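quick q for whoever's on today - can somebody do inverse folding on this one?? i tried earlier but teh output was garbage lol. tokens:
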């Protein structure tokens, strides 16, 4: 099994609608909310959540994009420079409730780095976390406030979130890189015969 699709377009649409309702219920007043997507796939997810919230509440939200690559502890300096993307937060985060939005929550290290980057921009009233997928295997004491789907997975598997904005289609897949390598090796052997 090289990959298994666990969410399709409709699943993702319904999940984001549910998370938007949960955000509205928890925050009551959305005037103080700022949604901040984490590069890369968290940015379009944040925009979709904002559109849903705006549709239900008849009010607009600030949506930003955060690059936290220079705060990551798994990249050296040159890798962090090469990974740099644009940070754009359209409003002041001081005394606001900021919801960080990401595609997959795994070890928690990326979220820790994102919080460090956000704190350097100001002092939010609160920071909440919304993720499409929580796959477990935490190494840091971080949990999401809003979870689209819990997908228990083995450490050697990859969870790939594909979005129309970045990948041309909406789906979530579990990919076993070992199977892909084995399949590729077998294909190369067959072609060399």
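ok took a stab at it. sequence:
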């Amino acid at each position: 099994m090289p990959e298994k699709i666990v969410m399709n377009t409709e699943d993702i649409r319904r999940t984001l609608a549910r998370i938007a309702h949960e955000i509205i219920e928890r925050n009551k007043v959305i005037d103080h909310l700022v949604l901040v997507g984490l590069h890369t796939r968290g940015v379009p997810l944040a925009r979709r959540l904002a559109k849903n919230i705006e549709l239900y509440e008849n009010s607009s939200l600030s949506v930003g994009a955060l690059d936290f690559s220079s705060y990551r502890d798994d990249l050296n300096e040159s890798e962090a420079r090469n990974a740099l993307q644009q940070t754009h937060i359209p409003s002041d985060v001081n005394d606001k409730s900021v919801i960080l939005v990401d595609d997959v929550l795994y070890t928690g290290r990326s979220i820790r780095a994102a919080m460090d980057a956000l704190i350097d921009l100001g002092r939010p009233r609160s920071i909440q976390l919304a993720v499409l997928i929580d796959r477990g295997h935490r190494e840091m004491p971080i949990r999401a406030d809003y979870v689209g789907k819990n997908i228990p997975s083995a450490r050697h598997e990859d969870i790939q979130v594909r979005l129309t904005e970045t990948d041309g289609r909406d789906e979530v897949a579990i990919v076993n890189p070992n199977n892909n390598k084995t399949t590729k090796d077998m294909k190369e052997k067959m072609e060399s015969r």
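fwiw The longest helix spans residues 9-27. also The domain at 8-153 is CATH 3.40.50.2020 (Rossmann fold). so keep that in mind when u check it
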